[in-house]
Amino acid sequence: MAQRPVHRWLDDVARTNSGQQCIEVITSLVNSLPGFFRHSEAAAARLSFDGQSLQTENFADNSAKLQFPVCDGSIVRGSLELCYTKDFPLADEGPFYEQEIELLQSAARIAGFALERARMFAECEQVNERASGHAHTSGQVISALRYQMRAPLNGILGFAEMLLSDQLTQEQRDAVSAIQSGAENVLDVTDSILDYARLEEGQLKLNLAELDIRSLINGLASSVEDKTGRLIELKCSIGENIDAVLGDGRRVREALESLISYCAALDVQRLTKVNIDLTK
Q1: Interior angle at CA 52, CA 49 and CA 53, nearest 5
Q2: How many Cα atoms are found within 13 Å in the side-chain-facing hemisphere of 145?
Q3: How does 64-86 read in b/e, with b if 16+ C-beta sit within 10 Å?
Q4: Which residues pair with 236 in a beta bridge?
Q5: CB-neighbour burial class of residue 220 (10 A; exposed 0-12, middle 13-18, buried 19+)
Q6: d(CA 213, CA 158)
Q7: pLDDT (tens digit per residue) in 176-224
């Protein structure tokens, strides 16, 4: 009877990198098993799982047969069997030695481990396929946002600006200003979504320019008041040695607006004061 440490089979399974490799290891294990038994020339093995069967050519059901369940975790996926294709005089302990029984039992556990790994590899492949499909869908959505939403919004903003430069009644001017403000808000949301997409792709770039920080903060107060229904008092302190501020205006505005809105939502007082200090 040939000898091979059980952990060598376990190592073979542990080194697999795909479900197909797991099946290859199991197939090799089944084909090798008969050589580890006393009457190896007449021994045959079969692994049955999920409606499939891997077996040596000479396998046949026989009264002298060993069988152990093959489990994936707590789930029985199949069985591992070994039989003799002809009868031999029985030894005192039966047709199989105790160490042969232990060997087949260990092989059944290893086969279960291999099937579990094969299942995990298959699940990972499914997740990757879904992620790939999601990425493709996300790319289509981003493309639609970029070309099918920003262009019309920019058109609306352009026409609104043209109308505001014309002679309008106050009522008309207020209506056009509302249209302009709404289009700018939608454009900001669209740009934010595009930013997230660029961030995932590692392609996000800042649009740096000189900022009029006072005008930006004054505009924030009005914007947050409209959203929260609270009076917002913003105090801005800028160091005397700072002539200009360089930054990405839209993103600075978004960050400050989110922070101020959050503070206003937590403040039980009707009036929210926010101090902003800018130093070099």
Answers
A1: 90
A2: 19
A3: bbbebebbbeeeebbbbbbbbbe
A4: 276
A5: buried
A6: 25
A7: 888 887 888 787 777 777 777 667 666 677 778 887 777 777 677 666 6
CA angle 62, 67, 73 (to 5 degrees): 155
pLDDT tens, position by position, 30-51? 888 888 888 888 888 999 998 8
Residues with Cβ within 8 Å of 197's Cβ and at least 6 positions away in sequence, in order, are 138, 142
- The dihedral of CA 117, 103, 59, 69: what is its sign? negative
Token reading at 233 = 């008092």
Here the tokens at position 7 are: 């952990």
Give bridge partners of residue 211 from the DSSP assignment. Answer: 245
Helix axes 98-144, 170-200, angle to 10 degrees: 150
What is the per-residue DSSP string for 214-255?
HHHHHHHHHHHHHHH-SEEEEEEEE-TT---EEE-HHHHHHH
pTM above 0.70, yes or no: no
Supply 206's token pair: 């800042």
Q: Which residues of the chain have pLDDT under 70?
A: 1-7, 62-64, 88-94, 131-148, 197-198, 200-203, 218, 221-244, 263-280
* Under 8 Å between Cβ of 272 and 232: yes
The structure tokens listed for 19 are 């479900």
